[in-house]
Amino acid sequence: MVSARSSNLWGGVAIFLVVLLIGGSAVVGDTIYVDDDGPADFNNIQAAISDANDGDTVLVADGTHTGPGNRDIDFLGKAITVRSSNPEDPCIVAATIIDCNGSQEDQHRGFYFQNGEDANSVISGLTITNGFYGAWGGGIFCWSASPTIANCTFTGNWSGDGGAINNYYYSSPNITNCTFTDNSADNWSGAVHNQEYSNPNLTNCTFTNNGGALVGGAMGNWYSNPTLINCTFNGNFASYGAMHNYYSNPTIIDCTFSNNPAIQGGAMFNAGSSPTLTNCTFTGNSSDHHGGAIHNAAYCSPILTNCTFTGNSADEWGGGMYNTGDSNAILTDCIFSGNSAGDWGGAICNIGCDPILTNCTLTKNVADSGSAAIHNIDCNLTLTNCILWQNIPQELYIFSSATAVINYSDVQGWISGPGETGNINANPRFAHPGYWHPNGTPDDANDDFWVSGDYHLKSQGGRYDPTTQSWVYDDVTSPCIDAGDPMSPIGAEPFPNGGVVNIGAYGATEEASKSYFGKPPCEIIVAGDVNGDCVVDFLDFRLMALHWCESIPAEPTVNYQVGECTGRSDSKTLLKTEPTRFSVEVRGSHIHFEDIIPGNCCPDKLELQMTLEDDLIIIFEDEYLNSPCRCTCSYPTSATSGPFDDGTYSLDVYKREFVGEQAVSTVPVGSTTVTIGMDDE
User: What is the mean pLDDT of residues 509-532?
Assistant: First the structure.
């Protein structure tokens, strides 16, 4: 695969042509001191900013800064830093206060970025409080600006949309190590609101007790794709989700959502959105109606990997998750335990959708007597390599209008039927199963609470213990080890792994329990011992035969060039959807692709990438952005790719936007079919 932005090809190899932002050597500037009751250069922040030059630092003394010049602060487009005396010291941050002193009658916010500021415009180590702004952003408002906001605390701010921060129209700030507490909004987003193609990066941020908003107690995303890493959402409240996504596709990694209540979707409510969640935890979230943790309302395709849902509840449907209206969730290596629903689906309720679960574990979830852990109506459910065990009152409910394809799974009470393969009904032997604590009233289940467990599989060959972060040995071995689909990849399973993936949430991961063959693991790995039983025999040959000649096909190379920007426009409007505009021509065993890619005039780089999956060719038109400008461009692009084997291929084209290395949006451009080497004689 070749990926580059180039206006020339040398020897058939694409050459990078990177569009650099304005920059160069770092500027070391002056330090300007602000203190309203002591010796300093200025007695208010705005005066210091007005005097500053790019590269300068405005150092704000400890104390409370309020009144004119210390609120509604404008950076004036300058690449400067405004900070406390020590942004790394929480005590200093708490003592360096921007008090907006706003009210309904006298509205003020902390900062206003409106002059194209980028990551070189920095706020660090301040507490911003008592902002009150009826429209957007009680604490900070960014209009087509992407500053850096680090080590700040936002508390007690209010706005119509975005109680603490509102990012509007291509505003993508970097927000790091910030705390959002007790902020509120009337409409959208108690703490942070991202609107109109704003894709901020939030890292190590904490959202606590924000709310009052109709949608998004902590965060709302409207046609925006933020990236969140290692953030915590606790006790935020709204009608629709602590996080609300409307036609937005956030990327969420290593985040925790706990004790967030809502009318719909306690932790998250998605409409027309497809977030990607990895290594996230949902605990104790609740909904008055549907989706105790997540509610996928319509046309959502969320992708969840290695996520845990524990102790969430819905008064009606979907204690952990509710999917409806063609919302086709894809879940891999996920755990649902101890979730509850007043009516349908203690763990998951699916209505009118086609969810896919692979290597998931669902146990001791509770629903109404007529339902199950997974409740399905008018949908097509696919389960592979999953465990459903000790759910109340049963594991699955399949309404007559629904179908379920279940293979290589451990389902309590399962009776095999036609077309089903590899299913078992056996105690999975979890390391330490969670349980419902009676709370001193064994006859009253209403006050029971959930005690979390450990769902690694017991093994005499070795089980990973997350508490000690070591491998331990049990006196029994789970029947789910090496019982998955033999054609599923074993992924990162440690050796010995039997050559077959485990059933359950840790299958195909580096924490998968090891295989046991009646004796201690091999001290020396023998060449040809595929399954790890210390012997090279027919079982190894069987595994090799099963995968004989199986390989990851080499992808055809792609050489391409991207022309310089044409058709420059100062319009502030980018196309929300893009018509099919590309052309494809077959040239022998190669294809020639041409397109005119719309994009921002200030990308870091543009790339063209291609993947081949069986008979599907996918071309990605990738744009990397950090600080976009306010105009759009058209980039003429051509590519020649191949060689391809003879056959008919589907060809899909997508436009992707990246911030750093994270894809923050993917928009389909169009599709066609291509036939190679099969012309009639």
Answer: 78
Distance CA(102)–CA(129), nearest Å, equals: 9
Helices H / strands E in the chain, number of each:
3, 68
| Stated length of the chain | 681
- Written as six digits, the tokens of 47 are 């005066």
CA–CA distance, 460 with 472 (Å, rounded to integer):
8
- Summarize pLDDT for 318-327 with one digit per residue, the tens: 999 999 999 9
- Global confidence as pTM: 0.78
Give, for 545, the enclosing helix (H) or strand (E). helix 538-546
Percent of the chain with pLDDT over 70: 86
Q: Is the dihedral of CA 149, 155, 156, 160 positive or negative?
A: positive
Torsions phi, psi of 580, nearest 5? -60, 120
Cis peptide bond upstream of 496, omega within 30:
yes
Sequence-ordered list of residues with C-beta below 8 angstroms from that of 331, at least 6 positions apart, any chain: 304, 305, 307, 355, 356, 357, 358, 360
- For 591, phi and psi rounded to 5 degrees? -120, 145
Cα 660 to Cα 278: distance, rounded to the nearest angstrom: 18
E strand intervals along 223-285: 227-229, 232-234, 237-240, 243-246, 251-253, 256-258, 261-264, 268-271, 276-278, 281-283
One-letter identity of residue 515: S
How is residue 361 written in tokens?
């574990």
Q: Identify the residue whose tokens are 């005499």.
A: 460
CA dihedral 496, 502, 507, 510 (to 10 degrees): -10
